[in-house]
Amino acid sequence: MSKVIILGAGMVGSAMAIDLAKNHKVTVADLDKNALYKVKQKCNRLNIQQLDVTNKEILQTTVGQYDLVLCAVPGFLGFETLRTIIKAERNVIDISFFPENALELDELARSKHVTAIVDCGIAPGMDNILLGYHNEKMKITGFECLVGGLPKIRKWPFYYKSPFSPADVIEEYIRPARYVENGKVVVREPLTDCDYVVFDKVGTLESFNSDGLRTLIHTMPHIPYMKEKTLRYPGHVEFIRGLKTSGFFHDRKIEVKGNLISPLDFTSKILFEDWKLGKTEEEFTLMRVTITGEKMDGETEEIVYNLHDEYDSSSGTSSMARTTGYTATAVANLLLEGLFPEKGIIPPEWIGRREACFNYVMNYLEERNIHFSTSSSMVSLV
Q1: What pTM did the predictor assign?
Q2: Under a CB-based contact definition with an 8 Å cutoff, are residues 73 and 55 in contact?
Q3: Whole-angstrom Cα distance, residue 297 to residue 380?
Q4: 170 and 98 part of one domain
Q5: Contact predicate 70/91, CB 8 Å
């Protein structure tokens, strides 16, 4: 039985902890005592520990006592937290989705003989794994990922609820979106190139540019077309654009009645309650991954993976926590079982390129009722 510590007792961190506690000795660490007590109430097998990850000395000492670390801290804390874990010479699975380039820590991770698997959620994460798998079997010419988590009940004006902190969601709306076109990286404003897409069971959603390719830009430079877009209910983008254009997402502080206030902090505070998922509120996760490429026989094939996952009422676990968290725990178990030996910063696509690892993750998700439907067709280039 391995000793595992999870940094972050939020919705996804809690789901990961409860899942891993089935076979491992798990500790959940967080600065928020209330969050720790809540996860302990859900699963008495868990150990809890109050911890400030910004205290690097204490963090390094703490994680050094464990066989594996799972990092589920907010994005703005992610990069430095990951660096500290690597310095402690601990293997780590990271889902903090920080804005910095994780590959900058590759040399450090290799020197410490550490396996640090980053961006290991649903997207980025599972979409990378799918692409990595097919990249070994065909000459890929195109990749598109459409993904989003949404409440079943649409509430005006945003038609949205979030399992993450509003600050992390807003980061998607302000960070420049990168995609690949004709083999070149194109940088666009987020919330642009809106398209309507129809999904079974849901109907019409809108998709827009977001910066979700991340490591794929560096690890898959041979693929001439790659794009990731976020899904929301129609109308959401227009409201967000209004807030953004009006300055509500600026981090530059302004003076209000003698006090300096960051508009972004103010907006995040206001949206926290409006976007907060209710304890038993039903929501779902959608993902459609389309991979196009040339097979060994020269024919062009289009492969489509569709995921529709919903809130699990039996365990009270949100779909986004399930799909993000169980991808990470699948890879965590794979690593603990010694099935992935590589060292350094490991993006999920490198997990997918090993067929045994790909099958392990897919089977792990299937066992937890997370199902991908798959279709393929031949494409005529005429």
Answers
A1: 0.95
A2: no
A3: 14
A4: no
A5: no
